[in-house]
Amino acid sequence: MSERILHLSAKEFEDELKDFKGLIALDFFSEECPPCAQLAPIYVRMAEKFPDVKFVKMLRQANRPLAEKLGVKGSPTVLFFHNGEEVGQRLSGYISITQARLALEGLQGITPEEIVKEKVSADVLILGGGPAGLTSATYASRAKLRVIVVEAGLAGGQAATTYHIANYPGTPGVLGGKELMNNMIDQAKGFGTEIHDLQEVVSLDLKGDRKRIITEDFEYEAPVVILATGAESRRLPADGEADFRGNGIHYCATCDGAMYQDAEEVIVVGGGNSAVEEAVYLTKFAKHVTIIHQFDHFQASKTAQEEALANQKLSVIWDSEPRSIVGEKHLTGVVIENIKTHTLSTVSANGVFVYIGMQPRTSSFADQIKLNQWGYVEADDEMHTNLSGVFVAGDVRSKTVRQVATAVGDGAVAAVNAERYFASRKSS
Ligand SMILES: Cc1cc2nc3c(=O)[nH]c(=O)nc-3n(C[C@H](O)[C@H](O)[C@H](O)COP(=O)(O)OP(=O)(O)OC[C@H]3O[C@@H](n4cnc5c(N)ncnc54)[C@H](O)[C@@H]3O)c2cc1C
Predict the structure, then answer these.
(1) Active-site residue among 27, 256, 395, 410?
(2) Is the dihedral of CA 153, 177, 274, 299 positive or negative?
(3) Which of 98, 200, 213, 310 has the lowest CB atom count within 10 Å?
């Protein structure tokens, strides 16, 4: 918890607001609220970055009259006050670090040209702090190189978002994804890796001898870069997806499943391992879970299928795909099409979790690095990309098996070859 953030009651806040000259940010949050949990570290970062602003947090459930008076209906909602009056645009839902920063810079009249970036020089820069990036970091740090992991969100990657990992060797069998990733973070840090999280890339130049990565806070420079930006969920191709994303449509059961405690019905879309395993996990919260799958059989492992099909709270609708989302303020169902008969029907639901595959995260460097036809980074067995001094590791690489075990394998190979490249450059 940051000392810069005050936790106030409605009465304390109103007293504070009366005489305060300057800018106050007020975050109405709730417990058991995934977007609030996502905002928490961003709010701390903003409090460090904007020392002239007073940052306040207030538990909405405990201060309902003030929330209602201010017209705050959902959590999190961030409001801004200048000299006691509300100013600027409110932020709500899943708030990114960029949205928060732009709002505060706008209210303070700060232009992009005025932002002084700290210049940082490293031996190896690693873009992405998932299993691949953290493994590269451990190896390269152990080789006594100065390693910085530049991470857009919080380190841990996709693996930190799954409730259990049962197939990663060397663990007791079933381990929480977050626990596994916290171990990897601690291990990398223990060998000297610096992790700079919440750093969205503004621009990047991978060509030439010194590579440069620019974020809002830093200008990084290094002779070696390892790309380990992983992959993200493919969005559900159904009308209304964007309107309900984060509020009815979800891509992470571990993050958002608890929102559906005692919900009547939750839908999971997909038929691979992630869909089937996360559907079983969601039966811990919802009264019933329906999997909607486009084929008449699952692609998931036999073990995962058996567990799902034996679960009394879970059923499957085969041969069907969602076409549109139903609901006004809240999601109430999904229109699905049977792809054999082309019949449309509506399935009532409180929430939908989507597991229909992944797409690589390459937008910040796609114009500089050779990608294959599906957008994954091309590399040889030693993780060299088409640019000298630029290596790749993990799910973002062109390959057939995307798992934690393969990501860490790539990470090790990329780091060893990065070390060799670094040494050869120094000796030449
Ligand atoms: C729900 C789910 C369940 C899974 N279950 C299992 C399992 O049981 N066993 C198993 O082995 N695997 C499992 N996987 C797959 C496994 O999590 C991935 O294969 C693995 O995390 C890939 O690691 P990575 O480091 O390549 O990429 P990621 O884990 O995707 O990490 C990439 C990191 O890079 C960051 N990043 C992205 N773009 C940028 C940028 N421009 N700048 C800076 N940072 C950036 C991201 O924020 C992220 O932290 C599961 C995946 C999911 C989604």
Answers:
(1) 256
(2) positive
(3) 310
Res 1 pLDDT > 70: no
pLDDT at 390 over 90: yes
Q: Are residues 226 and 375 in the same domain?
A: yes
- Parent domain of 367: 118-232+358-427
* Residue 262 annotated to the active site: no
Asked if 302 and 384 sit in the same domain, the reply is no
Question: Total domain count for the chain?
Answer: 3
The answer to whether residue 374 scores a pLDDT higher than 80 is yes
Q: Using a 6 Å cutoff on CB, does residue 403 contact ligand 1?
A: yes
Q: Are residues 226 and 372 in the same domain?
A: yes
Per-residue pLDDT band for 185 (boundaries 50, 70, 90) equals very high
Token pair listed for 120: 């940082």
Look at residue 428 and tell me whether its pLDDT is greater than 70.
no
Are 186 and 226 members of one domain? yes
CA of 407 to the centre of ligand 1 (A): 8
Is there a single domain that holds both residue 216 and residue 177? yes
State the residue for tokens 């936790």.
Answer: 7
pLDDT of res. 242: 85
Tens digits of per-residue pLDDT, 236-254? 999 999 888 877 898 888 7
What is the identity of the amino acid at 425?
R
CA 327–ligand 1 middle distance (angstroms): 31
